[in-house]
Amino acid sequence: MDRRCYPDWRIQKARIGFHDLTFVVDGRANYYIDGNKFAVEAGDLVYVPGGSVREAHTFKESPMHAYPFNFFWAEPHNHIRLPFGVVTKKLITKEILAYIREFNHVWMNKQPFYMIHARALFELILHRLLHGMHRQTIMHMDPRIKKLTAIIEEHYAEDLSFNDFAEQFNLHPVYLGKLFKKNTGSTYKEYLQRIRVNNAEHMLMAGGVTVTEAAESCGFQDLSYFSKVFKEAKGYPPSAVKKH
Which residues lie in coiled coils (predicted)? Predict the structure, then answer.
């Protein structure tokens, strides 16, 4: 949707059930999310997760022009939040704007199969945003942690010793642990388990392996522990993967 705000445009205060992802291309506005004020301007990405209390207004001297997307995740996943702050800068590229304008054209013309076309474009927009955020994170990541995460993603099925990594980088394990958490947002154990669980899930979805085989192939030697960790991460046991 192409939103060209009138000078007195505003969003009344209310709790929203959907997610609001708005691309601001011109003008200014103030958003109030859960009681906190956020000033937005051209080039900003605004993200308001479902369940938030949202309110907004623009300015008469500089009305906002934006492309908002209001959407729900398929149940039972609507509680999942995108990894953006309320306002994120320097993520909207010319490529993303081109996809947004193409989406708007498809949505307004409503030709046959337009829903499939529009959904594919929206998912492509999300992909480019997440890729851009990941690239920014990698650029600012400590090179030692970048190397360590690459090793984990390549050798997650092996017996990886955190203390060995600390010795390899000539760092105290406690300091390396803090550095890892600062750069990734997760502890080493959480990161390793997430990689292992996600790969086990992919194997089970593809079929041809048992839960035990998937667990062992992804570095879990204790089946009970694997089932516990998997359910905590996914919300359902590994035996129920194909039902989700």
Answer: none
The DSSP 8-state label assigned to residue 33 in this structure reads E
d(CA 214, CA 220): 9
CATH of the domain at 177: 1.10.10.60
Domain span holding position 213: 143-240
Task: Please enumerate in sequence order all residues whose Cβ is within 8 A of that of 57, keeping only pairs 6 or more positions apart, or say none.
Answer: 9, 10, 11, 29, 30
Report angle CA 230, 231, 233 to the nearest 5 degrees: 65
Consecutive H or E run containing 241 = none
Cα distance between residue 8 and residue 29, in whole Å: 11
pLDDT per position in the chain (244 positions), as tens?
899 999 999 999 999 999 999 999 999 999 999 999 999 999 999 999 999 999 999 999 999 999 999 999 887 778 888 989 999 998 999 999 999 999 999 999 999 999 999 999 999 999 999 998 887 777 788 999 999 999 999 999 999 999 999 999 999 999 999 999 998 889 999 999 999 999 999 999 998 999 999 999 999 999 999 999 999 998 899 998 877 6
* Whether residue 9 sits in one domain with residue 56: yes
**What is d(CA 44, CA 55) in angstroms, rounded to the nearest whole number?**
17
Helix (H) or strand (E) run with residue 200 in it = helix 188-206
| 122 touches 162 (CB < 8 A) | no
Instruction: Please report, for residues 44, 95, 167, 202, 229, the alpha-carbon distance to residue 81 in angstroms, rounded to integers and kept in the order given.
Output: 18, 24, 37, 22, 21
Residues 109 and 154 occupy one common structural domain? no
